[in-house]
Amino acid sequence: MTSTLETQPAAAPAPAGAVREVRVAIIGSGFAGLAMGIGLKKRGETDFVLLERADEVGGTWRDNTYPGAACDVQSNLYSFSFAPNPDWPRSYSEQPEIQAYLQATADRFAVREHCVFGADVTSARWDDDARRWRVTTTAGEFRARVLISAAGALADPTYPDIPGLDTFAGTLMHSARWNSGHDLTGENVAVIGTGASAIQIVPAIQPLVQSLAVYQRTAAWVVPRTDHPVKPLMRALYRVVPGLQKAVRGGLYLMRELLVVGMAKRRRFLKPVQRMAQAHLMRQVRDPKLRAALTPNFTIGCKRILISNNYYPAVSAPNAELVTAGIAEVRPHSIVDRDGVERPADTIVMATGFHVTDLPIAEKIAGRGGHTLAEEWADGMVSNRSTTVAGFPNLFLLVGPNVGVGHTSMVYMIESQVTYVDEALRAMDAEGLEVLETTPEAAQAYRDLIARKSRGTVWVAGGCASWYLDKQGHNTTLWPDFTFRFRKLLRTLDRENYVGMPAGAPARTSEVAA
Of 350, 376, 403, which residue constitutes the final position of a domain? Predict the structure, then answer.
């Protein structure tokens, strides 16, 4: 059967003030949004838009421009499988190279022409009568047959609730909203947080500042970063023999997947990794007191494993201090810890992470009956195959619940989801369905599956509290198994778990069309 999604021309820009009709609206233009747009483009779909609140593609890699920003997954794996880049300058790429890659990929596959920049989505509501999504943005209104959220989990930063923070008279910035025009040279700087962003920022700014106070709530496990320049000969080989780069990618994938054995199956297999991290700490930190403060009290992998060769030397430097007493209050020109010690601060850098288990986009998306995703997920995020939610017809979530991975490339997971969404769209076309919606039973079964797979894993039983778990202690962030099993699960549409409404059918009869 000819696909109705594939035979429609691109929608013409709507006049100012008018509602623009599109078949598919995608929120976000990071890795997930671009992958989805390229997937649509490859099968001939042209009537879609990528709604991007910024003025450029890139998502996380556009926004995180802090000093030292880089990926902790090797470049050959942290990239699209359909768009290998033989010219990565290093084995682990830095933010500018990844952002340039995303921009070039958007141009290469002609997706940029579908981007609507400056389009911050303020609300998206399902219209049951029209069987369309009504999407309101700062760039106008859209009406879409299908809505795909690719907003991502690392899109909206979290800010700590610290007494007196609003009285600070110096420069205050989040790692994800870096003020590149502010010179830190010679300043007294405080960094709040010791996660993935902080361990990159601290070594980058430590040589510049007069004093550096790093406020640590929980120590993290850090392993060596095996980064190195990619030799010109290897780049040339990648260009001439593309299969070589594909083989390297496969090897990296398998190597990282071995970590799942320890994280999700047999935690004793994590002991060699933890011993490596302990040896790394012993080698780089000679002061016993500082070393003790930097030693975590939980099993490695319970929180995200960090990689760095220069974080420990930076916090050990004469002008740096690790503060573990906690913050009592912020004053106009200083921070006071809970031991009563006051330290001067000209700039405060908050490396405090993102809204992950309480996605802000969930407050803006309202399904059947006007209920928002946030309301639906008040007791924890629930979905079918991490991609669809009961009561939210024709809505697909990329980088949704339980798609996260702590050991390998998110791009692998994103591509798996794009395949699943594409299968759903093909099913709608083949069956002439105007509406497709998963069932509550399917979502609950998937949640039960996640709970079973999470039981006994390092993320749940490793002795830490992490952003992988929601307020109820449920794992709603990570896929707790081998990622190839996630891909297998999403390779085809589980059509039996969906109900559909044919075009032209009376309203609210979706339950009769299985």
Answer: 350
**Residues 478, 482, 483, 489, CA torsion sign:** negative
User: Do 381 and 448 share a structural domain?
Assistant: yes
Question: Please, are residues 89 and 424 in contact by the beta-carbon 8 Å criterion?
Answer: no
By residue range, what is the domain housing residue 39? 19-57+111-156+355-492+507-512
- pLDDT category at 17 given cuts 50, 70, 90 is low
Q: How far apart are CA 307 and CA 72, in angstroms?
A: 7
State whether 346 and 359 are in the same domain.
no
The answer to whether residues 324 and 396 belong to one domain is no
Residue 155 structure tokens: 């899109």
Q: In the predicted model, what is the mean pLDDT of the chain?
A: 92
60 CB-contact burial (10 Å; exposed 0-12 / middle 13-18 / buried 19+): buried
Helix (H, G, I), strand (E, B) or coil at 140: strand
Residues 370 and 432 in one domain: yes
Would you state the pLDDT for residue 15? 54
Identify the pLDDT of residue 510: 41
Mean pLDDT of 100-104: 98
- Give DSSP secondary structure letters for 14-50: PPTTSEEEEEEEEE--SHHHHHHHHHHHHTT---EEE
What is the pLDDT at residue 3?
37
Q: Assess whether pLDDT exceeds 90 at residue 284.
A: yes
| Whether residues 360 and 332 fall in one domain | no
Give pLDDT tens digits for 471-513: 777 888 899 999 999 999 999 999 999 999 998 777 654 444 4
pLDDT tens digits for range 79-90:
999 999 999 999
- Helix or strand or coil: residue 394? coil
- Are residues 278 and 320 located together in one domain of the fold? yes
Q: Can you tell me whether residue 358 is helix, strand or coil?
A: coil
Are residue 123 and residue 139 in the same domain, yes or no? yes
For position 334, which CATH number holds? 3.50.50.60
Listed residues 295, 326, 350: the one ending a domain = 350
Going by C-beta distance under 8 Å and a sequence separation of 6 or more, which residues neighbour residue 144? 21, 22, 23, 24, 25, 132, 133, 135
Residues 394 and 475 grouped into a single domain: yes
How high is the pLDDT of residue 512?
Answer: 40
| Contact assessment for residue 91 and residue 230, using Cβ atoms and an 8 Å cutoff | yes
Residues in the chain: 514
What is the number of domains present in the chain? 2
Q: What is the pLDDT of residue 509?
A: 43
